[in-house]
Design a protein that fits this description.
This protein is of the alpha/beta class and 167 residues long. The protein is built from six helices and six strands.
């Protein structure tokens, strides 16, 4: 007994088109971090670095954008996180756990606060390290990437919760 299927009634199978290395277009984005909330800014940056803001997102390719962040010393935390949040690291020796708070880290290396937040929002592995290298953080208004003609992103205007109101 043979069984024949009539395939004319079925819809064709949709194929996912993945991006190729030759089709990758990396854009440059410029974000001013003055009065921006750290977590919201880090979430936006991590999506841009991975390429999730593009229609041709491919999880195994580095098709994200380059992100330039200026005025990092004017970034803000909500609530009491500026004095109470702790960042831990380990020296590798027994009993070698060290901790610091953002208020102390802001005096030494303010760019490290945002870099830590973005790093923790990216998946682990070699691709995430490559994507994190596309993040450029600078103190003040000046940056050396003017020749790339970055697109200015007005992050504070995207949502009213992206900025801390100054009284």
């Amino acid at each position: 007994m043979t069984l024949w299927l009539n395939l004319s009634n079925y819809a064709p199978i949709a194929m996912t088109n993945f991006i190729k290395k030759s089709e990758i277009e990396n854009n440059w984005l410029l974000i001013d971090a003055e009065n921006a909330v750290v977590g919201r800014l880090a979430a936006y940056i991590s999506k841009a670095l991975r390429g999730k803001n593009k229609t041709r997102y491919t999880p195994n390719m580095n098709n994200g954008d380059f992100v330039i962040v200026t005025n990092i010393e004017k970034i803000k935390f909500t609530g009491k996180k500026f004095n109470n949040k702790k960042y831990y690291r380990h020296t590798g020796y027994p009993g070698g756990i060290k901790s610091t708070v953002p208020s102390l880290l802001m005096k030494k290396k303010p760019e490290e606060i945002l870099k830590l937040a973005v790093r923790r929002m990216l998946p682990g592995g070699p691709l995430a390290k490559k994507q994190l290298s596309n993040l450029k953080i600078y103190k003040g208004e000046n940056h050396p990437h003017a020749t790339q003609n970055p697109t200015i992103v007005n992050f504070l205007k995207l949502n009213k919760k992206n900025s801390v109101r100054i009284n």
